[in-house]
UniProtKB/TrEMBL annotation:
<feature type="transmembrane region" description="Helical">
    <location>
        <begin position="330"/>
        <end position="353"/>
    </location>
</feature>
<protein>
    <recommendedName>
        <fullName>Peptidase M28 domain-containing protein</fullName>
    </recommendedName>
</protein>
<comment type="similarity">
    <text>Belongs to the peptidase M28 family. M28B subfamily.</text>
</comment>
<dbReference type="Pfam" id="PF04389">
    <property type="entry name" value="Peptidase_M28"/>
</dbReference>
<keyword id="KW-1133">Transmembrane helix</keyword>
<keyword id="KW-0472">Membrane</keyword>
<feature type="domain" description="Peptidase M28">
    <location>
        <begin position="81"/>
        <end position="145"/>
    </location>
</feature>
<keyword id="KW-0812">Transmembrane</keyword>
<dbReference type="InterPro" id="IPR045175">
    <property type="entry name" value="M28_fam"/>
</dbReference>
<dbReference type="InterPro" id="IPR007484">
    <property type="entry name" value="Peptidase_M28"/>
</dbReference>
Amino acid sequence: MPPPAPILSAAALLTYCTCDVDPQRMEDTLRQHFSETRHHRTNPDNKRAAKQYIQDQFKQYGLEVHNHEFPSAIDNVTGTNVIGMLRGKNFNTSLDNVVAISAHYDTMPETPGVNDNGAAVVAMLEAARQVVRHPQRNNTVFFFAVLVTEFLPTFLAPNVPWQGLLNMDVILNFDSRNDSQDFPPGVDMAFPDQAASVRSDGQRGDFLTIAGRTADQGLLKAFVDAWNKLGQPKFEIEEFAIPVNLHDHLRDFTRSDHSNFWEHNLTAIFLTDSANFRGYMEQCYHKQCDSLQYLTKERVNFIAKTSRTLVAMADSMAPYVDSSSSSASMLTGGGVLGALIFSMALLTSLRLLTN
């Protein structure tokens, strides 16, 4: 696999960023489509409805939509990951450098899952809606709506040059109260500077946590730069680059689908509000009270900033191009038929995580 193209600078991020997300639309979507349990046993109808809504939105945006169905080892049910794809100008060539944005859309059995993980799905959908406003791009962009821990990226190797995954899991809970933020075990010792920063700010949960391996530092830095450049300074960000020798000791940073990418040495970063280590989620993580009762305009604006930053990242990692140059792009690297065969091979070689 060839090395990924360099991520553009923060200045270039602002050159490309549309950043026109709609917080009210995001709130309405969260309330109407992702505020009830989405679990195959306790509310299968609502899980199917959420999947269908994601499919419909992807299609409405003009994305190619593919369903990855697989037999799950959990309760012997068939699972479905929904994949939206925006082909880049360099699709099916060695010049393509794929970027992906992901969030799981299901819930645990007894929770409405407004924060875990409805808010992240909404942020992904809004980012997709903005990205397709400029459909002609150099690189291919994927949007993965997945079932938690059920996504293995073996389809990316060795055929697809990979630039990076931005995975979201539990991103809604902005909490500016003093002493609302705890640390996962080992974090204060492994990251003394970040711990000191949070303590000096009153131990407030007023930031997005962004985590990656030391190998992912380029993507981490680009995201942090974009976040800070986009304003709204009350929404802060804390970066955690995890050394290889500490992966097994900081398991709270691996509690989502990006960990499967890390295991295959693929660039990926994790966006989270820290889940059960902040505010109301200490009591409501995977519980009935992860509901609309904690949804506020401030928290909607928090996830809207996350969505804006995702758009900025997509615009830098998959720059949009003049539409006049797009007509020949699908004829390179084997032509349209070759591109279609490549697409089918890519999507049918997905595998279920079996560990």
